[in-house]
Structures are given as structure tokens and as C-alpha cells.
Design goal:
Blueprint (H helix, E strand, L loop, with lengths): L1 H7 L2 H5 L3 H6 L7 H7 L4 H11 L6 H19 L7 H21 L7 H17 L5 H25 L5 E2 L4 E2 L2 H11 L6 H19 L4 H11 L8 H18 L1
Antiparallel strand pairs: 1-2
Helix pairs in contact: 5-7, 6-8, 7-8, 7-9, 8-9, 11-13, 12-13
Length: 253
């Protein structure tokens, strides 16, 4: 009924833009996409709304709402053809990073890992738009946001995938979902090449560290069994191969 009232009176939001915020305070998170279909809402208002309304009990409807809203924002912001104003852009980027932190804090189930990854993609998208205009303030804000994002995702990955990497009995990965997450994390790019390089090297080092916790024979086995299947995975295959060769050398000694 609320959605119908808003739809019938959507023209009022064109007269008073602050009215949108009042209406949004009455919405449930799973009503957000219906609301956005009839009322134009600024990015920062949407980010703040989700940040306020995300709760610990992520039920199926809330999970779907988070997934749909993040997809919507990524599509919308990817088509933005001009940078943000300085202050507005800084607020959007910092709020998006805080929201990513909340999403990663409440969603740690491997089966729902697509939502944190989508909010990570949204942060990267906003960061790239924000960097279209160069200034010392923007560089500092971006560097701080990047550092916080790296910390959030590193912690989330470790808390979400706590099991061993390999199944010793059949020489396979314990969780195909985890390997998919590693691959996606390594494909993330930022507006500055040095940030992208630091991000990739951090997660490659993390993956290598986790793989080396496995028995050396199993490190060799996973490479022998999976090297063709992983041929498209690039950096992951290089690390698996490196660990296997080091394990062979150690055993031969």
C-alpha cells in the first residue's frame, strides 16, 4: 500500500527533493527496488539508507534486496559520464566502504558470498568515478578508502572460508565456491595501478600461505589433477605450480 501511495504522488518528489528521505524512512529494505522504480533517488541517499537498515538477521528477502540493489547501483553508476563534486564524491566513497564493512560483517556464509563481492565492485566503481578529477584531497581519500577496503575484504575472506583448502582424500578443492572467490578477488581493479598491484599481490600471498598449510604431497596432487581445469585462472595456477615445484624439491631432498 505504501508503494502505491508513493507511486501516485511521485511528482511531489520533483518539487521537494528532501521528501524522498522522509519516504525512505518508512520503507523496508525489500521494498527498496520498487521505490527506486518510481522515484529518483541520489546515490548517497541509497547508500545511507542501506547502511542504516542492514541487520544481523539476513533473511532470504533481505539477501535478495541487497543483491538486487547492489546490481542496480553498479549498472547505474557504471553509466555515469561525469565525476562527483569533491565533497559529495568523498561522502559517497566513504559511505560505500562503511556499507561494505557492514555487509561483510553480517554475511559470512560461503553460499551468499556474491553479495559482499558485489558491494566490493560498487566501491571500485565509485572510486574510479571519484578519481576522474585529480586533487591531493581526492588522492588522500582514495588511499584511505583503499586501505580500509583491503582490510575489510581480507578479514571477510578469512572469516568466511575457515576450512582447509584441499580435500586430502580425492585431491580436490574443499570448496569450489572459495576458488571462485579467489579468482574474482584477483580480477578486481582500482583506478590506480599501484593499488591494483598491491591488492593482487596481497591476495596471491594469502592464497599461497593457505595452500602451503596443506601436506606437500597434496600440493603436488592438486596441481597434477587440476592444472588443465585451472588453465584459465592465470595467477592462481602460477601459485599452485610454484608450491608444487617447491614441494617436489623438498620431498626429493
Amino acid at each position: 500500500s505504501l508503494s502505491k501511495i508513493v507511486k501516485d504522488h511521485a511528482y511531489l518528489a520533483d518539487i521537494d527533493r528532501l521528501l524522498v528521505r522522509s519516504w525512505m524512512s518508512l520503507l523496508h529494505l525489500d521494498d527498496l527496488m520498487d521505490f527506486l522504480a518510481v522515484v529518483q533517488v541520489e546515490l548517497l541517499d541509497i547508500l545511507r539508507y542501506i547502511q542504516i537498515n542492514i541487520k544481523s538477521d539476513i533473511n532470504p528477502s533481505m539477501y535478495k534486496a541487497l543483491k538486487d540493489s547492489s546490481s542496480h547501483l553498479i549498472r547505474k553508476e557504471s553509466n555515469r559520464n561525469q565525476s562527483f563534486d569533491d565533497k559529495y564524491g568523498e561522502c559517497c566513497l566513504r559511505t560505500a566502504v562503511r556499507l561494505l564493512g557492514s555487509v561483510c560483517h553480517w554475511i559470512k556464509e560461503p553460499g551468499h558470498c556474491d553479495v559482499p563481492l558485489q558491494f566490493l565492485q560498487l566501491v571500485c566503481c565509485i572510486s574510479k568515478i571519484y578519481s576522474q578529477t585529480d586533487s591531493e584531497t581526492r588522492k588522500r581519500t582514495q588511499q584511505e578508502s583503499f586501505g580500509e577496503t583491503l582490510h575489510i575484504i581480507t578479514k571477510w575472506r578469512r572469516n568466511t572460508f575457515i576450512n582447509k583448502l584441499l580435500n586430502s582424500w580425492n585431491r580436490s578443492f574443499s570448496s569450489p565456491i572459495e576458488i571462485n572467490v579467489w579468482t574474482k578477488l584477483l580480477s578486481v581493479s582500482f583506478s590506480h595501478e599501484e593499488q591494483t598491484s598491491l591488492w593482487r599481490n596481497t591476495f596471491l600471498k594469502d592464497f599461497e600461505g593457505k595452500l602451503k598449510q596443506e601436506d606437500r604431497v597434496h600440493q603436488i596432487g592438486i596441481y597434477s589433477k587440476m592444472m588443465e581445469e585451472l588453465s584459465d585462472e592465470g595467477p592462481l595456477l602460477c601459485i599452485i605450480e610454484k608450491c608444487a615445484l617447491e614441494a617436489v624439491a623438498y620431498i626429493c631432498q
